[in-house]
Amino acid sequence: MKKLWQLFFGNLRKQLILGMTLIVALMMATFIWDMTRRQEIAEIEQNALQATALSHSLATSSAVWVLSRDYSGLQEIVQSTSAYPAVLYAIVLDLGGQILAHNDKSKIGMYLSDLPSSSAAPELRQTVGTIDVLSPIILGKKQVGWVRIGLDRKPFKARLIEIKRNGLLYILVSIGISAVLVTLASRFLTRRLYAIQKVADAVQSGRPDVRVELSGNDEAAKLARQFNEMLDSLNQREQQLRSFYELNLVGLTIISPEKGWIRINDCLCRMLEYSESELRDMTWAQLTHPDDLAADEAQFNRMLANEIDGYSLEKRFVSRSGKSIPVQLVVGCVRKPDRSVDYVTAMVQDITERKHFESEIRNLAFYDPLTNLPNRRMLSDRLKQAILSCARNGKVAALLFLDLDNFKALNDTLGHATGDLLLQQVAQRLSAAVRECDTVARLGGDEFVVMLENLSAYPMEAIKHAQLIANKIITALNQSYQLGQHTYNNTPSIGLVLFDGSEQLSHDDLLKQADIAMYQAKKAGRNSIRCFDPRMQESINNRVALEADLQHAIDTGQFILHYQSQLDHCGNIIGAEALIRWQRAPQRLLLPSEFIELAEETGLILPIGQWVIDTACRVIMSWQHCESKKHLVLSVNVSAKQFQQTEFVSAVKAAVKKHGIDPERLKLELTESMLLSDIDETIAKMKALREIGVRFSLDDFGTGFSSLQYLKRLPLDQLKIDKSFVRDIAEDASDRTIIRTIIAMAHTLKLDVIAEGVETEMQRQLLIDYGCNHFQGYLFSKPQPIEQFDAQLQKN
């Protein structure tokens, strides 16, 4: 069967010839069979029509003779009909079936019994050898007899056999012609493919430079070009592999389990510091580091046992000089037909440099590059281990969080390079001040952490030991530093927290607690130690909750304004100061001192301050529509962070325009501390708002460090005397002198003066005597809702 298959289907050309020949033969056979079948049907129909027509003619011509019983005339008609080709018999019968005339005269007078009772049309009967037609003889509308004609089918069958013989001949001729044409066509179509195959056979036989030479743009030409490109690519790769081996980029060797070393390249010789002949006298085990030999042999034995076909691992070789060389070893094998190892290939790459880079990457990942101390990541890992260790052995450990005092000032004055020198020396002193089992880490900036492990099983002894080490650190860090040409003194602030693994605290929680304690040390005056107190955390938690509630208050509109009236020396209300309140709960109203500082620190003062300005403008707008209120001026406090915003001026202008108020009815109160950051920018913003009419008052005057040089440049309208001077004006001569100086200076600068915190009539009278004509304080009213302020205004 295999040879038969090869004979007919051995190649593409044979498959094409056989397939096309079969297709043509099938198509021609189908065509000839269909043509023969149609011819047979046509012949049958033609014979039937001929018989029917002959019988009808005989019936028509014999009708009168039957009725007249003229047998001789009938016989003549029958004899003339039987002269037609293939007529076997022609018969005329009466209605009873008696033969009146027959081409065989011997049968005249006989009867036929297979006649139908009656028939209006001819009846056609076909047998294997004959076609029989029985037709009625009609005269007028009356049947008078029968006519029967029989035709011989043998000539017809002979013609059919001849047609089929000719059809078979046509089929054979067609198959022969198609086979010749298909053979020629297949040779033409496949000759280009055979050209490719010929080149492939040549390459396989060892001629890699042979290429297919075909022109054109048909599929065969494209395939030839792609085949040539593939051969070029394979040759190029082979050259590269050969060049790779010859370039000695990695150590390469071929080893036979029976014969030993077969081939060794120069790179491996240089790597191991042996000549090729010396290596051939050594074993693989002699070159391998003793600690890595077992792993290598285990893999090699698995390969010999046919469990694997190769392996890769990191190991160390030992060179002639005894140097340990880390390498990446890739081993493969070529097997014999019985699956035993024929020879082994090994690629050896020196990864010393890679190991060095990995070590550097690890140092960068876990150590601070400036001080070479563990960084936050390594500290976190060690702290987690320490927590587990404390829980296991019952010992107490401690965490010291250190921050250098005034380190920013050193960076700003002497530069970051000097700051780095200080950090490096601090790291050295910290490492020298603690035990070897302790960990010193740098978190970043000027923040360091010292973790003290295995202090004691008793908390009191542990804290004493931790404080002893902390004091030792402070003493070490208080010593003078020599930073280049500069001698510098620095102090640390240290937060201390104990842990024993039973508190269920994470390492992040412990760091936060130590950080909190460190900030308490800074608040206590720096250069000190503070232990973490749970009340510190409670205070932090309350602060976090307050911040969240403050954000919620902004989102839900829980703020309101109270208004404290401002009067002139005659007792007339000339305006008011808008003071914010926080309705944190239905029965709990918070004053600014309870939340403004937090709002400043978190940046929430910005939306709060904008809300105050918008609300104040809305109130001024309502006053403008009332004759008795349109003269009132409303003062609004502005925070430093709010005023420093780039868009502050545009925001105020937008609020004024939105509510359509007279800008002169809006007074912005600034504090002296706001003037110190950027006086030029402050003046520019004040002038931009002063141009549209907005007024300015300098709040808490006398408590800051205002410069007269700045004061004369500021577009102010008013100075507000701080209530700390007003409170003791009747008893303290110094306060009276300060107030008189402030009033005199304001008059010199042509500024209005208002005193806040006026609570007694004596204070008011003294202020009037000194030249102050505007007042604000509990003597006149407390800060009150707008409804009560309106009632006071009506009463006034």
State mean pLDDT (0 to 100 scale). Answer: 85
Helix content: 40-55%
Radius of gyration: 61 Å
Beta strand count: 26
Report the end-to-end length measured between terminal Cα atoms.
127 Å
At the first level of CATH, the class of the largest domain is: Alpha Beta
The coarse silhouette is elongated
Tally of discrete structural domains:
5
Total of DSSP H or I helical runs spanning 4+ residues: 27
As for the CATH topology of the largest domain, it is TIM Barrel
Low-confidence stretches: none
The CATH architecture term of the largest domain is Alpha-Beta Barrel
Largest sheet: 8 strands, mixed, barrel
What is the CATH H-level superfamily of the largest domain? Answer: EAL domain
Strand order in the largest sheet:
18-19-21-22-23-24-25-26
Classify the secondary structure makeup into a structural class. alpha+beta
Strand content: 15-25%
Topology readout:
Layout lengths: L1 H8 L2 H50 L1 H6 L2 H11 L5 E8 L4 E4 L20 E4 L3 E10 L2 E11 L1 H51 L14 H29 L3 E6 L3 E5 L1 H7 L3 H5 L3 H4 L2 H15 L5 E9 L5 E12 L5 E10 L1 H15 L9 H18 L2 E9 L2 H8 L1 H18 L5 E6 L2 E10 L2 H19 L3 E3 L2 E3 L3 E8 L7 H17 L5 E3 L2 H23 L2 E10 L4 E13 L2 E3 L5 H7 L2 H20 L8 E5 L2 H4 L4 H12 L6 E6 L7 H12 L4 E7 L6 H4 L6 E4 L1 H5 L5 H16 L3 E5 L4 H9 L4 E3 L9 H10 L1
